[in-house]
Amino acid sequence: MAVYTEVSDEELTGFLTQYDLGDLTAFKGIAEGVENSNFLMRTTHGTYILTLYEKRVRAEDLPFFLGLMHHLSGKGFACPLPVAGKDGESLRELCGRPAAIVTFLDGLSPRRALPDHCRLLGEALARMHIAGGDFALRRDNSLSLADWRPLFERSRARAHEVRPDLAEALERELDHLDAAWPRDLPCGVIHADLFPDNVFFLSERLSGFIDFYFACNDFYAYDLAICLNAWCFERDNAFNVTKARLLLNSYRNARAVDAAELEALPVLARGAAVRFLLTRLYDWLNHPEGALVKPKDPLEYWDKLRFHQDVRGPGAYGLD
Amino acid sequence: MAVYTEVSDEELTGFLTQYDLGDLTAFKGIAEGVENSNFLMRTTHGTYILTLYEKRVRAEDLPFFLGLMHHLSGKGFACPLPVAGKDGESLRELCGRPAAIVTFLDGLSPRRALPDHCRLLGEALARMHIAGGDFALRRDNSLSLADWRPLFERSRARAHEVRPDLAEALERELDHLDAAWPRDLPCGVIHADLFPDNVFFLSERLSGFIDFYFACNDFYAYDLAICLNAWCFERDNAFNVTKARLLLNSYRNARAVDAAELEALPVLARGAAVRFLLTRLYDWLNHPEGALVKPKDPLEYWDKLRFHQDVRGPGAYGLD
Question: Which of A274, A281, B3, B298 is the most buried (most CB within 10 A)?
Answer without folding.
Answer: A281
